[in-house]
Write a structure and sequence with these properties.
4-stranded antiparallel beta sheet, mainly beta, 78 residues
Amino acid sequence: MLVIFGLSRKERPLGLVALGCGTCGHAGPQPAVHRRTRFTLFFVPVLPLRSRYEMRCPVCGAGRTLSRDDARRHGARA
């Protein structure tokens, strides 16, 4: 018997977040995304493992994790 399992990662753009970068100091808006990781069995997503909101600086590429409330408060469609 063959069992195929793995992880599936999906990324959904939420819009722009009006926060400055803490690494390089870039003051412009940064794109926010909602990332979900799920356990898959036979290529069917079965169990959600992780869900998080992140933003990434377009200048230096540094990432930052946001809470759901922070993403909503700063302008992303969370």
